[in-house]
Here is the input.
Amino acid sequence: MPAWSGARVVRHSDRRRRARRRRALWGGGEVLVTVGVLLMLLVVHQLWWTNREARRAAERQVEALEREWGSVRAGTAGGGGGAAAPTVSAPAATPAPDAGASDAGSSPSRAPKRSYVPVVLPRRSQAYAVLTVPRLGLRVPVAEGVSKADVLDKGYVGHYRGTQQPGRVGNFALAGHRNTHGEPFRYLPRLRRGDDIEVETRTATYTYDVDQILPRTSATDSGVVRAVPRSLVRPAYGYDEPGHYITLTTCTPEFTSRYRMVVWGKLVSVRPR
Here is the structure.
């Protein structure tokens, strides 16, 4: 037999096919690595960068409000005495003092008049108050409305339009992110009954005590932000009588927006500035 009869013949077409497969595999690998890097950058952006930027913006806004209030107080103090304003306890069944007309059913003998100046209604997306929750180490601005782009994604807490303002009879209802964009309400589940929640405005500081916690309800459960809050999904949670309520709402469980967690508090004191 010829010496070359047992040799393997390699066609150029086979080489080209193998070369194409190698290029395809290499290209596919590069695409997967690129996608992986992009996903990692997206996660870093959402979990770190948005938090960092939103927290810094929220801190700057709190400082700006404090400077504004300080200048207002300094101007007011310049025209009169400098006596500190007393703390006014909020009776459980008595509306908070109002500088205008008294609320229906209020008791003039128990409700001190003009103990604070009413909150001027804020513009949409305007930051006008500061929420402080000592147990959570939280101090964050409160803005009007719950727009993601203009309020929540800035790291602020948003006030549900149509609900009451702080200190008034009714429900002062707030929303905040649980994850990303500053995540001010990430540790809301750590709150316990009796914990303080403070709301500072230009004219007064309102202290509420945590009273009820609804661990989970539907995202469409509008009853939790009504004037007399009560869950429509889990009616065992909520109230039957008018009062001075605060409501904190956020998404649950973490990294989802399927359900809502709700914390309710009751007004216990008003400290005019």
